[in-house]
Amino acid sequence: MFGNDIFTRVKRSENKKMAEIAQFLHENDLSVDTTVEVFITVTRDEKLIACGG
Fold first, then answer.
1. Which of 39, 47, 46 is nearest to 15 (CA)?
2. Number of structural domains, the chain?
């Protein structure tokens, strides 16, 4: 289950990665919480599959 999953810490200042997170959340009818400074993302086969912060 977790063999190909990559967990990454993303700081709010990492604009490119934050744009990917915002797009992922938007696709799932969610939005970025402006109070969160660090996100944890999970990617599988180079595709973002989960995030939290």
1. 39
2. 1
